[in-house]
Amino acid sequence: MKRIARRAFRPRLGAGLALLALFAILGAGRLHTELKSSNPAQDTVLAVPPAAITLTYTTDVQLALSSVEVRPSGPAHGAAGKLEYLADDRHDVLVLPLNERLANGTYTVSWSTAGPDSHPISGTFDFTVDAPEEAGEIAGVEGAPAAEANLDADRQEGGREPQPRFGRSQTYLTFSLYAGIVAVLGGAVFRLLVLGRCARAGESRQVIGLATHHAHGIAAVGAGILLAMVPLRLLMQAASFFPDDPLGNMPTVATGTAWAVGWWLQVVSVLVVVAGLLLAGRDGRRPAGWKVIAAGALLLPIVPLLSGHGWSDSPRALSAAATWLHVVAAGGWMGGLACLLLAGLPALRRHGADAPADAPGIAGMVGAFSRVAQGAVALLLVTGAVKVWIHIGAVSDLWTTPWGRTLLIKDLLVAGVLALGFYNWRVVRPALSRDAHPQRLQRPAVVELLIGVAVVGVTTWLVGQPLN
Description:
Distance between the termini: 52 Å
Largest sheet: 4 strands, antiparallel
Strand content: 5-15%
Structural class: alpha+beta
């Protein structure tokens, strides 16, 4: 009955995945935060000094992470008010009231902000005031309280992503974040889905116990990395927007933004994983602890989702679901493969000879992992297609934009991982049934894992870059 139910479920699963892809094709749209227009416009000459600087963006922006400054190029002067939204329901427009009349001269407007994905963007533009002396006093914006606007003047022009002082450090932190997620997800997947199947098939307690102990250690390393990332990510994010005083602005970054929600979720998720590790015991043999670890592991992929393109693309619900599933599938696959190499094979080499003759052995363990890998690959292909369709505005973007070209490099690396995975499934796995020597699997699996690490590296760069 179970086999019949599984066979009946597979077509439904395939139909559901196909329907998900169809919805993506029909309803996807690309959203990336850019400066859409400004008032005054760039390089305009005004006969009347402006009452305010108005910036309109292509998406909603986060006021807490926004700043605008008007700088004169000569002796001209003018006082600015407090930066605010145009209206309660118009979070795509920022207004900087000017409470004093701008004297004649050329002015540079420098701005920085962040869209829903919390990536910093900035830019500058100039305008000129050439008003007759009888132009009179400027009228302030109603309800705009007087205060100084704050902005870092050392930003790039043209609304491009700035190059923060800690750019490389942020890249390393993002890579470490993904590595930690992969380690925790891989440990949970390997223990619950791979070793669980092997135990039910009759694998010896010694093999299961030692492999579980090693998987517990891998998950603990991942949790340690993620725990160390908590203060470092907060500091680096504050440095991106407030390089002059990152420590003083850490509370601002940690509250009231979409990125802050992801940061606090990382704190909670890591604490859940740590609690699961402790509950599982030093050797990791208590099953209840692994269920808690799995709960925390499934929360962790939401962390990069809330600070990346997956949260800013439209339709958001589809983009978020596809991104979460994509990270879960990739982490389970690559993390599970790492556990197979670093936990499963060592346990089999040490205790495999003492196992019963009918024990699954390496062939059974590889077969159990292959089932997990097949499901992960299916999810990766579908969600990857959905994400690409949502991200790019046209097929030509794949080779005409830096983001698209890097995505093609990632796809080539993923194709290499898939090819090696297929080889391990179709060639190595059957061969292990005849000759259960771990070396047959270890070499291609190590290459597969190394390419997977390269994929994570490219992904780290992609998530922090604009789509144009």
